From TrEMBL:
Signal peptide: none
Compartment list: Cytoplasm
Protein name: Threonylcarbamoyl-AMP synthase
Reaction it catalyzes: L-threonine + hydrogencarbonate + ATP = L-threonylcarbamoyladenylate + diphosphate + H2O
Enzyme class: transferase
Role of this protein: Required for the formation of a threonylcarbamoyl group on adenosine at position 37 (t(6)A37) in tRNAs that read codons beginning with adenine.
EC number: 2.7.7.87
Family: Belongs to the SUA5 family.
Source organism superkingdom: Bacteria
């Protein structure tokens, strides 16, 4: 495990649990990306998450739980949701479920909605931290809002200039945020693609997975401009223009005089997902104004990769 360059804010699990119990925030590892965790029941803790990230408060947060029993204290569990939980939890799947009336949650977590986004992370250290804290934690990605998501402890330290304590848990093995699916009226609605694909969800349940008709923000990751480097991102490029950096996939042949990287030379989508944010981060240099990205398949996990790239490329004016 690579030692972070700034270890002054590195904490152990017991310290991290005490920080959460005191109503403060700590960055924790998950299998998807590092999350900025706070007590999901306390307004003051959730406000610290929003303030630390400079995140819009109309954007709901994912609540992370250590066990099914913990999930059941805050959300109702229809049979379709239980089927998905049996298949994919713990793991990179977030479900938007009806919130229990009187659930011990800050209204800021749900943005005033009558639903709550919940998941059980696969990362052992994350679940252990939540168990030691003794309550569900709200945990969006541990980065300034709209910027590239962190997949290492060093990314967190760099993003917040060492101001946030970090529980080191190694690099994230998935590399992109969890799939988010709303379970409502016996239907599945895909709100954000992730490593568990639309086809995976359909196969696990025997139900079609629909797109949302209502585009209002009901879950994290639905803002049009998101996951963005400082550089402009140009998609589906077949050549590099003067001064552009190149981000290839598979056997694509983009060439740049400035910098050239490949998400996966073998064309493996899982490898590309793991490398996506770290490659964008590496190319996000002061001397690079635009990153040209080669076409990437939209099949399976490719839907999630292209979703993050579209949001990275969205107009921020």
């Amino acid at each position: 495990m690579e030692e972070p360059r700034d270890s002054t804010q590195m904490v152990k699990i017991e310290q991290a649990a005490r920080i959460l119990q005191a109503g403060d925030v700590v960055a924790m590892p998950t299998e998807t990306v590092y999350g900025l965790a706070g007590d999901a029941s306390r307004d003051d803790a959730v406000v610290k998450i929003f303030e630390t990230k400079s995140r819009p408060r109309f954007n709901p947060l994912i609540v992370h739980c250590a066990t099914i029993e913990m999930v059941e204290t805050i959300a109702m569990f229809p049979p379709l949701a239980r089927k998905l939980a049996d298949k994919y939890w713990p793991g990179p799947l977030t479900m938007v479920l009806p919130k229990h009336v009187g659930a011990p949650l800050s209204d800021l977590v749900t943005a005033g909605l009558d639903t709550v986004a919940v998941r059980m992370p696969k990362h052992d250290m994350a679940r252990t931290l939540i168990e030691k804290a003794g309550f569900p934690v709200a945990a969006p990605s541990a980065n300034p809002s709209g910027k590239l998501s962190p997949t290492t402890a060093q990314h967190v330290l760099d993003g917040f200039d060492g101001r946030v304590p970090v529980l080191e848990g190694g690099p994230s093995v998935e590399g992109v945020e969890s799939t988010i699916v709303a379970v409502q009226d016996d239907q599945l609605i895909l709100l954000r693609p992730g490593t568990i694909s639309r086809d995976d969800l359909a196969a696990a349940t025997g139900r079609p997975v629909l797109d949302p008709e209502d585009k209002t923000i009901k879950a994290p990751g639905m803002l049009l401009s998101h996951y963005a480097p400082n550089a402009t991102v140009r998609l589906n490029a077949d050549e590099c223009l003067d001064g552009e950096a190149a981000l290839n996939f598979g056997n694509s042949k983009l060439r740049s005089k400035v910098a050239t990287l490949n998400l996966s030379p073998s064309g493996d989508l899982a490898e590309a997902a793991r490398h996506l944010f770290s490659c964008l981060r590496e190319l996000d240099r002061p001397d690079i104004r635009t990153i040209a990205v080669a076409p990437i398949s939209t099949a399976g996990l490719g839907e999630a990769i292209n979703d993050r790239l579209r949001r990275a490329a969205a107009d921020r004016s």
